[in-house]
Design brief:
By secondary structure, the chain is α/β, with parallel strands linked by helices. The protein is 34% helix and 18% strand. The chain has 7 helices and 9 strands; from the N terminus they run αβαβββαβααβαβαββ. It is globular.
């Protein structure tokens, strides 16, 4: 896999297929990018499980915070890494050691996070990898929502947006509501 450039199809297929994220490095600080990403992904109907040892036992956006991935102890579709590149390698090793329990489909490293060796190990274990991307930004870009702010998404579509609950315009990827 060429991790320098992902096709829109690769990213949109992932976002259409997955239902849950374990967000490693989630923050309760409303000014942190992980908080924004978590809030957005929850609003799109994804389950988001925050993982942060310093906040274990507390809640972020109404979601119980776990100290580690081992404590999650159930299947999660995406492991979303909000840690630096060096720490991402350790997170991926933890995921691989817990693969039978977590059953992840994707390891997603946030903007600025890249660890090629960890990506190779994850792919060798059958797990898809995305690096240096944000699922919130990618969802907004590929669904067309980010275009409402005047950003060129690079996606042209004549598909009408799906109405969300309350009949509010809400672009979606796949059949997500």
């Amino acid at each position: 896999m060429n991790h320098d450039n992902y096709t829109d199809r690769y990213i949109s297929d992932i976002l259409a297929d997955v239902k849950s994220f374990a967000m490693v490095g989630a923050s309760a600080n409303t000014n942190r990018p992980s908080y924004f990403a978590m809030k957005y992904m929850l609003s799109k109907g994804f389950e988001v499980i925050p993982v942060n040892p310093r906040l274990a036992g507390e809640e972020i956006l109404g979601q119980a915070v776990y100290a580690s991935l081992a404590e999650v102890n159930r299947g999660v579709d995406v492991i979303d890494i909000f840690r630096n590149s060096e720490a991402a390698g350790d997170v991926v090793q933890e995921v691989l050691s817990l693969q039978e329990t977590l059953t992840p489909k994707v390891i997603w490293m946030q903007l600025g996070v890249r660890h090629d060796e960890a990506a190779l190990a994850a792919e060798a274990a059958g797990i898809m990898v995305v690096m240096n991307r944000c699922p919130k930004i990618e969802y907004g870009r590929l669904s067309g929502e980010i275009g409402w702010a005047g950003v060129n998404t690079g996606v042209v579509s004549s598909v009408r947006p799906v109405l969300a609950a309350g009949q509010v315009q809400n672009h979606v990827i796949g059949k997500r509501r």
